[in-house]
Automatic annotation (TrEMBL):
The keyword DNA-binding applies. GO terms for molecular function: DNA binding. PANTHER family: NICKEL-RESPONSIVE REGULATOR. SUPFAM superfamilies: ACT-like, Ribbon-helix-helix. CDD domains: RHH_NikR_HicB-like. Keywords: DNA-binding, Transcription, Transcription regulation. The lineage of its organism: Archaea, Methanobacteriati, Methanobacteriota, Stenosarchaea group, Halobacteria. Residues 54-124 form the Transcription factor NikR nickel binding C-terminal domain. Pfam families: NikR_C. GO terms for biological process: regulation of DNA-templated transcription. This is Transcription factor NikR nickel binding C-terminal domain-containing protein. It comes from the Archaea. Coiled coil: none annotated.
């Protein structure tokens, strides 16, 4: 199946550099692998149940969203155990370490992704809690 996508040139250039450096045979192959990884990451987020420990890493433009992020983090203090924060100019990188209900962790991830000033949100479930 053929499809078309609108991708900024700088992202496409970086993507091409990456798959070529890894020795993949084509952009199509690299795109299929990237899409598959996205599906696997999303499926894990959707299907994990019960209690878990997780790390959520996200970047954001500090001045545009800091107040709302602090409010959100207070709303999720039942699952947020600690945070780590780095400044880089106007952008920040933050990692939130969570433990508790996967439903609440998933809800936090989705709310972080809703902010326009948040660039990326990645979650990694470290281990299920028995």
């Amino acid at each position: 199946m053929r499809t078309s996508l609108n991708i900024p040139q700088e992202i496409l250039d970086a993507f091409d550099d990456t798959w070529q450096a890894e020795g993949l045979e084509s952009r199509s192959r690299a795109a299929r692998e990237a899409i598959q990884e996205y599906i696997e990451r999303h499926t894990q987020l959707e299907t994990i149940e019960g209690e878990a420990i997780a790390a959520i890493a996200f970047d954001y433009e500090h001045t545009l969203v800091i107040g709302e992020l602090h409010t959100l983090q207070h709303e999720f203090e039942d699952v947020i155990h600690t945070t780590q924060h780095l400044h880089h100019g106007e952008w920040c990188l933050e990692t939130v370490f969570c433990g508790g209900s996967t439903h609440r962790i998933r809800e936090l991830v989705y709310q972080l992704r809703d902010f326009d000033a948040v660039g990326r949100v990645n979650v990694m479930f470290l281990q299920p809690v028995d």
